[in-house]
Amino acid sequence: MPSAARDNFAFILAAPKFSGNVGAAARALKNMGFADLRLVAPRGYDPAVAARRAVHAADVVRQIRIFDDLTSALADRTLTIGTTARAGAYRSEARILREAAPDIIAAARDNRIGVVFGPEDYGLSNREVALCHRLVTIPAAPAYPSLNLAQAVAVVAYELGVTLPPPADTATTDRELAAAVEVEAMHRRLQRALIAIGFLSEDNPGHIMHTIRAIHGRGGLRPREVDILNGVARQIEWLASGGAATLAEKRRAGRKLR
Predict the structure, then answer these.
(1) CB atoms < 10 A from the CB of 3, how many?
(2) What are the sequence ranges of the domains in the chain?
(3) Could you give the dihedral angle defined by the CA atoms of residues 92, 94, 99 and 101, in that order, rounded to the nearest 10 degrees?
(4) How far apart are the two ends of the chain, measured CA to CA in Å?
(5) What is the C-alpha to C-alpha distance for residues 236 and 240, in angstroms, rounded to an integer?
(6) How far apart are CA 98 and CA 126, in angstroms?
(7) CB burial string 121-134: b at 16+ within 10 A, e below
(8) Fewer CB within 10 Å, N- or C-terminus of the chain?
(9) Adjacency order of strands within the sheet including 113-117
């Protein structure tokens, strides 16, 4: 992979428990030519321990950025990839890493990619999965599919690092997608709008919203497309709050609707 494409990747560890795993992950990233490692609310993080485990990748440890929450860590990313070893309704869209790697590499030519790993004990929560546009999984033995955190980082970095960019005429995408934080804000606005018209249950909107997020994540959203969806959500909210009467009056009077 060209170095410019490698620079478009950030690897994010959500709530890691052990500083040694952070250091080992840093070493794995440097082995594969990556350098951007981020931590979200690490538990008892000791940079000195991480640096010792990183060996010759102590420079990667020194450049680690720490964030309070996953949304902040992904704020400058335009495509977010979650990793999971678990099954479940919210993880049914997960693709095998090797199969997904060419599409991710193609997107990296024009986008800033965030690859997210959950904590050692239970992986990414459903709420964190919801912030990921796509999911990947590493096919391991069914009897024990859970990898050590640093091992998972190494496998993902290896698969991405050795995947050659596809020719320009077969590339999946050659466009920059909207920033992850803007897509997430749009999804929250859309959820409020769909609750307002009764399409989503106020008690459990997450199930259908998960499917909507997955649809958008598969294709990716450009900034203009996010703007349009924001406009749709605002219009729905306006209609639900009494705008329908105003709209009907305009139609009766033959006035422009907008």
Answers:
(1) 7
(2) 3-170, 180-253
(3) 160
(4) 48
(5) 6
(6) 23
(7) eebbeeebbbbbbb
(8) C
(9) 65-67, 37-40, 9-14, 113-117, 79-83, 134-137, 95-96
What does the pLDDT read at residue 256? 64
State the greatest distance between any 2 C-alpha atoms of the chain, in Å, as a whole number. 75
Query: Structurally, what CATH architecture does the domain formed by 180-253 represent?
Result: Orthogonal Bundle (1.10)
Task: Judge: domain 3-170, CATH 3.40.50.1820.
Answer: no
For residues 164 and 183, the model is more confident at: 183
Give the pLDDT band of residue 3 (cuts 50, 70, 90).
low
DSSP 209-258: HHHHHHHHHHH---HHHHHHHHHHHHHHHHIIIIIHHHHHHHHHHT----
Run of H or E residues at 194: helix 180-196
Spatial distance between the Cα atoms of 113 and 160, rounded to a whole number of angstroms: 11
Residues 6+ apart with CB under 8 A from 103: 172, 173
Are 3-170 and 180-253 equal in CATH topology? no
Beta strands in 26-130 (DSSP E): 37-40, 65-67, 79-83, 95-96, 113-117
Q: What does the buried/exposed string (b/e) look like for 82-104 if buried means 16 or more CB atoms within 10 Å of the residue's CB?
A: bbbbbeeebbebbbebeebbbbb
The answer to whether 238 and 250 have CB atoms below 8 angstroms apart is: no
Neighbouring CB atoms inside 10 A of 201's CB total 12
